[in-house]
Amino acid sequence: MSLDIDWQKLDSELAGHVQQFLNKHFQAITKPSFIGDIQVKDFQWGNEAPQIEITNITEPFPEFYEQEDVDEQDTNAAKAASEDWIDDEDINRVSDHPSSIPPASNATINNTPSTEMDFQVHMLISYKGDMSMTVITELRMNYPSVMFMSLPINLKVRSVEFEATAVVAYIQSMQRVCVSMLEPEDTRAGGAGSKDIGMDRDVHIETVVGDEQKQVLKNVGKIEKFIVDQLRKMLDDELVFPSYQLIQLQ
């Protein structure tokens, strides 16, 4: 069953939240010495909407019933409030659940039994559109001394293309929604014959190094690869199962 979505509802305000989220990620990463500070200058949703097809409806994964410790909840709530990721009075907290957190030490399986209203939807998402963002940084020359020379870099990330399987679980018994992506080898998505596949992402980047009014260098491969690898790593760390995004409802 296919779904139609109103892509135009994704306005500039929400794009600004995504831009802030990306900037915080790039500020926190470790960069090679030849790359300066990375800043997302602009983010645009584009006009092309993804194609979404529901492939299965199942019971939620057991991991989605994990109960956070109280201290961890308070920390994540404060973090979410500061990031202002989703501005909605019906959503109190959005938190990350990386797979590196040992369930035995930091999280426990909730003893509350599931209800008949708990369910999980598997969706095949295909996107080939004009979503874009502009990234600015600088190329640093550290010889004969540190930052001996620097060149401004402007990267235009566009023509994003990917196909992925998303899972969205509604846990009525805990008043939460969990969102994640599946890797190709994850067979729990629907068993034999399922359409569920992992993420296959591709992006196109146009790079200009130097002042556009003067002589410039174009298509600097190492910097482009670093930016793309960081974007992919961020998606893997934040969304690929067993990591997931949790939306706590009232």
Automatic annotation (TrEMBL):
Name assigned to this protein: Mitochondrial distribution and morphology protein 12
InterPro entries in UniProt: Mdm12 (IPR027532), SMP_LBD (IPR031468)
Domain of life: Eukaryota
SMP-LTD domain sequence ranges: 1-250
Keywords: Endoplasmic reticulum, Lipid transport, Lipid-binding, Membrane, Mitochondrion, Mitochondrion outer membrane, Transport
GO cellular component: endoplasmic reticulum membrane; ERMES complex
Species in which this protein is naturally found: Mucor lusitanicus CBS 277.49
Residue ranges of coiled coil: none
Quaternary organization: Component of the ER-mitochondria encounter structure (ERMES) or MDM complex, composed of MMM1, MDM10, MDM12 and MDM34. A MMM1 homodimer associates with one molecule of MDM12 on each side in a pairwise head-to-tail manner, and the SMP-LTD domains of MMM1 and MDM12 generate a continuous hydrophobic tunnel for phospholipid trafficking.
An example Gene Ontology biological process: phospholipid transport
Its membrane topology: Peripheral membrane protein
Compositionally biased tracts (Polar residues): 102-113
